[in-house]
Amino acid sequence: MNGLDAIAMNQLARMPERHRRTTDETAGRMFAGVARAIRRLRLPAVRGTVLQPETSAR
To answer: Which branch of life, at top level (predicted)?
Structure first.
């Protein structure tokens, strides 16, 4: 554990329960958003769209 981890753990330990719960909910929403984005990227053929490779602007 580095210094930043120790600081974060200390702040979390001193945080009131309602704030800690809100922090967990925010992290859950962020994780759900990332998971949704990954699913969208992994299933382009099912939705009928094709990801085009970027073309260089030469």
So the answer is: Bacteria
d(CA 38, CA 42): 6
Question: What pTM, to 2 d.p., does this model score?
Answer: 0.34
Torsion of CA 52, 53, 54, 58, to 10 degrees: -110
CB atoms within 10 A of CB 1: 7
Three-class secondary structure assignment of the chain:
CCHHHHHHHHHHHHCCHHHHHHHHHHHHHHHHHHHHHHHHHHCCCCCCCCCCCCCCCC
Could you tell me the two tokens for 2?
A: 């580095």
Segments making up each domain of the chain, as ranges: 3-40
